[in-house]
Amino acid sequence: MTLVIFLYMLIASTFTIGxxxxxxxxxxFLIGSRMIISGLLLLGYLIFVAKKTIKFSKTELLxxxxxxxxxxYIAFVAEFIALKYLSSVKVCLLYNLSPFISALFSYFYFSExxxxxxxxxxxxxxxxxxxxxxxxxxxxxxxxxxxxxxLAELLMITSVISVSYGWIIMRRLIRKNYSVIGVNGIxxxxxxxxxxxxxxxxxxxPALKSVHSSATMDFxxxxxxxxxxxxxxxxxxxxxxxYLLHKYTATFLSFAGFITPLFAAVYGWVLLGETVDWxxxxxxxxxxxxxxxxxxxxxxxxxxAT
Length: 306
Known about the structure:
two-stranded antiparallel ribbon, single chain, mainly alpha, 2 strands
């Protein structure tokens, strides 16, 4: 459980880092360049250091394509466009809707039994998000749907659905003894290429925005944020998450992510001056209760290794 907490303490920082990086680059190009660099690093390590290669049959071709499209491209492009308009804390909080989607996918793909206690835990966690939408304090100009949800929030929900499906496919490939590093490397490189192509059509020719008094300072700032994001998210988080899928279910790991907003709130407050209202603490408190109920039931069912 210690590794799980460490995992989400790390990933919480990437929402703040991403918000800072968006001062310098457009969101789609930022994701494209970051994923291409990350994918090349992972595949380079696998081929030249570990001396391994990835060989997959035609039957797994669709799974690898799904990793590229859903796990990386759609998930990250949607998230970073949303991050441009929402606070890092809110994006982090919405990201934790993933357990509900993961539970549904796991039910169909792995026949995991959904007991009443697990349903209660999920229901408590889901209900805790209601104030997040009805008490929307964001000062963005995004279109609202039904007077409640903004376009940026809708993009985050799309990101959550996409990444949750991606983790299910990742788990299936890991069960077939594919390398976590290799699958992530292919996904990031492919997703990064798609995002970069999209950026040229949507955002135009990439350009570094002027934030500091000199272009050199801007360059070193974005290079620093990019390096931190790659190390923390693309190298450490994704591969540690893949490792933890050997011990925990995708649903539980997603649910455990509800502790992430606590860390994100601290980072956002210290580095970005962001504040949170009572609805944030209400949500976090109740999802912790739901997490406890869900975790206990997963232990009883034997889905979590002890």
